[in-house]
Each structure stands twice: as C-alpha cells, then as structure tokens.
Design goal:
mainly alpha, 2 domains, about 75% helix
Length: about 200
C-alpha cells in the first residue's frame, strides 16, 4: 500500500520507528485520534512532521499517475498524520507547519483547534516564538493566546530579554482590550521606567 504513494513517501515510512508507525495505523482505524499506550516523544514529533511534509508534497503533485482509490488513501494518510500531530505536538515549528497547512486548505475548524492547543499545551516561551513568526496567521494566533493568558505568566516573561517585548505587547492588550487592572499597573510601571531612563540620557 505504501509503495502506491511513491518512492519518497515509502522511503520516509520505512525510516519510521515501529512505535511511530503504530500511531498512524491507530489514527487510520479510529476517527478520533488517541495515542493510547504508545509513547509520544520529540522524535515521533519530528518523524511525523517529516512524513506529513512528503505526504502533502505527493498530494499536491498527484495526477494521472494515481488511481482514485490510491489518491483517496494518500489523503486519508495525510489527514491521519496531521491529526496525530495536532493532538500531541508541543513544538513551535510543527505548530507552524500545521497552521500553514490548515490555512492553505481553508480548514478554519482545524485552525480553531490549533489555537485552543496553544493555551493548554504549549509553554509560554514556545508561544512567544510563534508570536514572532513570519506567517501572519501563526503570529496572530500566538499573540491572541498570550493576550488571554494569565497576567502573572506574562510578568515572568518580562525577565527574558528575547520574550520581554512580546510579553509587554500582550500586557498592553490585556490592559486596553481586556480591562485588566493588574496588567494596567504593570504597563504604567514599565512606561515610568522608560521615561526615567530617557530623562537620564
């Protein structure tokens, strides 16, 4: 069956660990993806991300070389792989891949599900990385997730030289759009510090 999808897909599939393959087999058999007892780790994340890339490339280039049945099977496998990644990944890079894919397919329900995952599964530093993304949809989702996060979480990010600016933008949104008194106090204090530093120059 895998050979029907082309040499590149078959090559990547052969390179997967058996545990990673079982995730896809399980997802193909069940509409709702569950990893069950199968261990999901960073390597599985990377393997499935690579598999999804070659599957999507093959979907994009399929024409007369594949039968309707083969094309349908290819699409099912790509969707199963994407579903496993969506339910498990905690990687900013894979999140970007999935979001760009969903946007390309105009699958807005899937984009909503990915947005929900940001606030429940991703570390604040990963969300900040996504908020600096070059892709506007990825960036907007991350910025919204940060604006809706706990103010105390954003305060912790202020001490990070890389994430501080993103955190401050989120605090300003909390103060103005979400009427957070704590965020307003923090923003005012930060502005006061900036003014004092300018006076000293």
């Amino acid at each position: 069956m895998i050979e029907d999808f082309g040499a590149q897909v078959a090559s990547v599939w052969e390179g997967l660990r058996s545990t990673t393959r079982s995730l896809i087999v399980s997802a193909l058999q069940q509409p709702a993806t569950r990893t069950g007892a199968v261990r999901y780790d960073a390597r599985a994340d990377w393997e499935l991300s690579r598999l999804l890339s070659v599957l999507d490339e093959r979907v994009a280039e399929t024409g007369a070389s594949m039968s309707t049945e083969q094309s349908s099977g290819l699409n099912r496998m790509a969707e199963a792989t994407a579903s496993v990644l969506e339910s498990q990944t905690q990687s900013a890079e894979v999140f970007t891949q999935l979001t760009v894919r969903a946007y390309r397919l105009r699958d807005f329900k899937r984009i909503d599900a990915l947005a929900d995952a940001l606030s429940t599964r991703f570390a604040p530093s990963e969300v900040c990385e996504l908020a600096r993304s070059n892709h506007p949809v990825v960036r907007a989702l991350a910025q919204e997730a940060l604006a809706q996060s706990q103010t105390t979480t954003l305060l912790q990010l202020l001490s990070d030289p890389i994430d501080a600016e993103i955190a401050r933008d989120a605090l300003e949104r909390q103060a103005t759009e979400y009427d957070s008194e704590l965020a307003r106090q923090v923003v005012n204090a930060l502005n006061q510090v900036d003014e004092n530093e300018e006076d000293e120059i």
